[in-house]
Amino acid sequence: MSQQAQTARSVSSTQKPALTLKTREALTGLLLIAPALLGLGIFVYRPLADTIGLSFTNWNMVRAEAEFLGGANYREMASSDTIRTAIGNTGIYILWLFGLIIIFPLFVGAGFTYVNKHSRRFFTAVIFSPMVISLGIASVLWLWIYNPISGLLGYAWRELGMQPVSWLSNPGTALGAIAVIVAWKAFGYNMMLFIAGMGTIPRELIDAARVDGAEGLTLWRRIILPLLAPTIVFVLFATLTMATEYVFTPIHVLTGGGPADASTNIVFEVWRQAFRWFRVGYSSAIAVTVFLAFLFITVVQMLGSERIISYEER
Amino acid sequence: MPRLYALLTLTVTLLLGYGLAQQTTVEYWHINSATFGAQAVDEAIEAFHAEHPDIQVVERFQEGSYGGLLTNLQAAIAGGNPPAIAQIGYNFRNFAIEELPHAPIDQFSGQEGYQEYIDGFVDGVLGLGQDSDGAQHAIPLAISIPMLFYNADVFEQAGLDPNDPPSTWAEVREAAKQITEATGIYGIGIQISNSNNWVPQSLIESNGGAIQAENGEIAVDSPESIEAFQYWQDLAQVDRTLPVVTDAEQEQAFLAGQLAMYVRTSASLANYTEQSNFDMRTAPFPTWGDKPRRVASGGNALFIFADDPEVQRAAFEFVRFLTGAQGQTIWVRDTGYLPVADGISDDPEYLADFFADNPLIQPALDQLTDSVAWQPLPGDRGFEAEQVLINARQSILNGAPVEETLSNAASEMTRILDQ
Fold first, then answer.
1. How many other C-beta atoms are found inside a 10 Å radius of the C-beta of residue B292?
2. Shortest CB distance from A277 goes to which of B245, B383, B395?
3. Burial level of B130, CB count in 10 A (0-12/13-18/19+)?
4. B416 and B408 Cβ atoms separated by less than 8 Å
5. Distance (Å, whole) CA A141 – CA A139
6. pLDDT tens string B261-307
7. What's chain B's average pLDDT?
8. Contact yes or no for B249 and A148 at CB 8 A
9. Are strands B300-304 and B139-140 parallel, antiparallel or unpaired?
10. Measured between alpha carbons, how far is residue A280 from residues A73, A275, B205, B307, B384 in Å?
11. Left (φ > 0), alpha (ψ -120 to 50) or beta: where does B398 sit?
12. Which residues on B lie below 8 Å from A256 (Cβ)?
C-alpha cells in the first residue's frame, strides 16, 4: 500500500501528465460538442425514440395508458386509401416544385447573367422579397388572389372573358394552387442560389469553351450545368423538404387537404391523424415511415452527390 | 430556511403584482379572436373581477377555433399544466367527457345556490354539457344557430322584396336564380367547414333525415339526405347560383357585396354588422316546404380542467358568472350568440333593450325552439368518419353523382365506426 503510494508520488513527481495528449484532445473535443449533443439528444433523438415506441400503440395523448398493438398501425397504413393518396400527392407536389423552383428559376437566373448589374440587383430584390413573408400570411394573401368571386385572379379571368376558376375547391387545381404559393415564396431564394452558383464558374472556362466552338445548348450541357451541379443538388434536396413540410401551412390554412383529399400530403396526414382525430399511435407509424424514407433519400444523397459533383472523366 | 422561503414567496408575490397572497388565478382558454368576441371576453372578466376581487382570471386566446384549442389543450394536459377552464366546441364534447381529465360540474352540487343556478337555463340547453346518463360535466356557454344573412341592396337591384326574404329552400333557389340573372353576382352561399358537418346536419335533419339514425346506423344515403345534397349540387352545377369555393372565400364575397345570401352561424352577426357596408339583414334558416326546422346548435361548453380544489372552486365561480344573467348579457350583446340563461332576453335589466334595438338577431332567437343538439359521431374514430362525409360533400359540389357518392360514403363511415 505504502509502496504503491510512493510509486504514484514518484510518477507525479516526474511531471508526466496522467493522460496522453491525444486523449486530452479527444476529451476536450467531447466536452466542446457536449452541449450540442445534449440538445440534439433531448430535442431530436429522444422524441424520435418516443415516436417509434408510440407507433406500436393506440395512445391518444391524454389517456393514461396506451395499449400495445404490435404492427397493427403499420398494417392499417399499408392498406389505407387516404395514405396512398397522400403519398401520391406528395410525389405530385415534388414534381410541381421541381418545375417551379428548380427549372424555372434556373432559366430566370441564367437570364439575369445577361442583364447589367444595377437592374439585376433591383429585380432579384423584387423576386426575393416573398421569402421574408411567413407562409401563414402568404396563404391568406393568396386567398385574396385566388378567390374566384372577389379575388384578383377572378377579376383578371372575367376581364379576359373567361369563367373564373375555383382554384382551391376544384379537385383538379387545388394541389397546384398550394404548390404555387410555396413556389412563390421559395422561387427568389433558389434563383439567388443559382445566380451565385453561376457566378463562381470561372469566366476563362466559358471563354475557352466558346473558342472551342461550344455555344448555346452545348455550352450549357458541357460546361455550365456540370459546374453548377453542387448548387443543383443542394436545391434539389431542399425542394424535397418543401414538398413535404412547407406545403403543410397553406394546406392547413386554405384547403384542409380538400376537396376530397385532393390537396393533402403525407405530413398533413400525420398532423391530422394526431391532432384532429387523436390517433397519436397511428400518426406516429406514418411519421416513422416518412422518417425512414427520408433516411433512405439522405443516404442516397450522401453517397450519390459525390459522384454527381465530381468533374473527372468517368 | 423557513425565513428564506417566506422571503422568496413574498418577493415572487410582489413581483407578480398579485398584491394579495390568497388570490386564486384562473386561466381561461377561448377561441374569441378580435373579430369573433374578444371584446366580450375582456368585458366579462372585468365585470367578474369587480365582484370577486379574490379571483384573478387570465384569458388566453387559442388559434384555430375549437379544433386548434383542443390540440393545444391535449398538449397542455399531457404536459401536466392544463388551463382551469376551456371552451369545448359541442362537436368535441363527447371526446372531452370521455377522454379528457376534468372536474365534472356535478361535483359542485353541494354549493349554495347550485340548484337555482342549474334551474336557470333555457330548456334543453344543459343537455349539451351532459353525458348519455344525464350527468352534468360541463356548462354550455354559447349557442349559435345557422340563419340566412342577405344583402337587401342586391335584393332590390334584382327586383326582389327585401322585406319578404325566402323562407323555404325552394324559394331560396328561385330568388338566387333571379339575383344571378339580374345582377350577375352569386345568389347563395352555404357555410361549410373542413372539419365538421354542422350545417349539413341541419339541412338533412330539417328534411326529416339524419346523419346517424336513432338505431345507430349511418343514414347519409337516405332519400332525405340525398335530396338535400342533390339540391345543394343543383344550386352549384345546374343553376350556377352557388359558388363552389372555400368558406373563407364565401365570407369575403358576401362582405364585399358579391354574394347575395349566405347561410351562416348567428355568432357572426356582430362582426358582419360592423364589417358590411350594405343593408344587411337576416332571416330564419330556410325550411324544406312544410317540414319542421331542425337546426343544430353550435357553440361551446365550459369544462373545468384544473386539478387543485381551490382553483376548481374559483373556476366554477367564473363559469357561473359567464353563464349567469350578467355574463350572458355581455356575451350575447358583443357576439350574436343566443343566451343560455332563461328569461334574460325580455328582461329590461338585461337584454330586452338589446333585442329591441337589434332586430337582426331576432330570427335566431325565434329559432331557438327548433334547435337540436349538434351530434358528433361516436367513438374513437368518429372524427374520421365525419371527414368521409366532408369529402363526399366536396365531391358532390364539384359534380360527382349524389346517390352513388353518398352510398359509398355511408358504407365507408360504417366501416370506420365499426372498427
1. 10
2. B383
3. buried
4. no
5. 5
6. 999 999 889 889 989 999 999 999 999 999 999 999 899 999 999 99
7. 91
8. yes
9. antiparallel
10. 10, 8, 33, 24, 13
11. alpha
12. 194-195
Low-confidence ranges of chain B (pLDDT < 70): 1-22
What's this model's pTM, rounded to 2 decimal places? Answer: 0.86
Alpha helices in B109-167 (DSSP H): 114-119, 152-157
Segment (H or E) for B120 = none
Handedness of CA B279, B285, B287, B290 (dihedral sign): negative
Reported as a pLDDT band with limits 50, 70 and 90, residue A212 is: confident
Q: Are A236 and A103 in contact (CB under 8 A)?
A: no
Given 3-state DSSP classes, what are the helix, strand and coil percentages for chain B, each rounded to the nearest 5?
A: 50, 15, 35
On chain A, the residues whose CB falls within 8 A of the CB of B253 are 147, 149-150
Q: Which residues of B touch A275 (CB under 8 A)?
A: 67, 71, 74
pLDDT at A46 exceeding the cut of 50: yes
- Taking contacts as CB-CB distances below 8 angstroms, the residues of chain A near B67 are 275-276
**Separation between Cα atoms, residue A187 and residue B162, nearest integer Å:** 49
A239 by DSSP, 3-state: which? helix
- The residue written with cell numbers 396506451 in the block is A66
Burial B168-181 (b: 16+ CB within 10 A, else e): ebeebbebbbbbbe
Question: Measured between alpha carbons, how far is A142 from A173 in angstroms, rounded to an integer?
Answer: 14
- Return the H-helix or E-strand segment holding B280: strand B280-283
Convert the pLDDT of each residue in B246-257 to its tens digit.
Answer: 999 999 999 999
When CB atoms are compared, the residue of B256, B381, B398 closest to A259 is: B398
Query: Measured between CA atoms, how close is B294 to chain A, in angstroms?
Result: 27
Residue B295's H or E segment, with its range, is strand B295-297
Candidates A79, A85, A149, A271: best to mutate against B (most CBs of B within 10 A) is A149
